[in-house]
Specification:
mainly alpha; 4 helices; extended; Antitoxin
Length: 61
Amino acid sequence: MGFLDKAKGLVNEANLDKARKLASDENVDKAADVAKKISPDSADGTIDAAADKVKSLNDKS
């Protein structure tokens, strides 16, 4: 069994619901803050854009 086969097996509604709960706006902001602390300042805009995208995708579900 390859890596992708195992990953496909993990995609189910229960795991998606768990991921959605973990991807709350507050947790996304915390993760972005940590990423900005350990990355160069030049990456801050990209990190913020990625966090905004995650939050907007989470709002759609």
